Amino acid sequence: MGRRAFRCLSIAALAVGAACSPAAPQGAHAGSAPSVPTAASSSGEPPSAPALGATSAPPTRAEAPRPVPAGKLRLADARRRMLALLNRDRASQGLPALVLDEGPAQRAAQRHAEDMARHSFLGHWGTDGSNPEQRHTEAGGVDMVLENASCVDDLKPRNLETDPLVDEATIAHAEHLFFDEVPPNDGHRRNILKPHHTRVGIGIALPVTTATEIGTPCFTQELVDGYGAYAPLPTAARVGQTVRVEGTISAPAVFGGVGVARVDSARAQSPAEANKRRVYPVPTPYQVYWPRGFVTPIPVDVSGATFRIDVPLDDQKRPGLYEISVFGKLPGMKAHGMLSLRTIEVR
Asked: The pTM is what?
């Protein structure tokens, strides 16, 4: 039986990402050959502010858990193993460890890993047309996330294991592909080494092994910047409707402003279409609102670490997926960056 090989792609925010160099695990050639699992796509740095899925089901109680062969890990342990490798890589550069996010970030990561594994494509848009921040928002997330992903891209439909036993070597290889990139094709490495990440959600989906091939897992990392508590936003709104954006920023972050961007609403697409859309730019706000004292169409009310503003959802009266960002500064940042990015479907 053959094992599929990995390839790598990198994405930089607001710029065209460059494809990563092929990597061939276990002697397999990574290229355009059929049944080749493609590795690693990353959503890169969010824009600076303008200048001033369902998880795999465990065995039921009536079922005895399958024995775990040497070198294999159950899903929860596989996630913890990838977390340990990721934190090892961060520690090698003097960066603090991340905490495993078993909430929204994990749900978003698992949703995308399963979508990619089931349809054998690689990208940041799902077959339902969703993007990373939309999936995170729909999973209940409120913070900024950057995404690394690796998967197969031969477009062959595959069934997934419901109780996967993940080969430890494939986890190590995926993290190796992410971290050992070299400039300029090092988007995944830069994502991992962003100093201010606090958590990570990890998705792992394993295709069923068949008589002709060994199932190779797909991985997704959702790297989270958790520096605030935010009031809920509506999931849907009308064009021109005003929504309140409010919250409290956590130290050491300092509030900057609130941005609004718009992209086209998600539409279902074929795996082949999704596989072509490799570069994902985090949308640039068409408007950023600043606190009083700055030139701004509507001032943000700020009291200490708490902020509040009512913003109109009206980008030239166009419907679409509106993206609400909260900007702030963290130690070492020269410009404001996104601390939160959430989506609203506007019709």
From this structure: 0.85
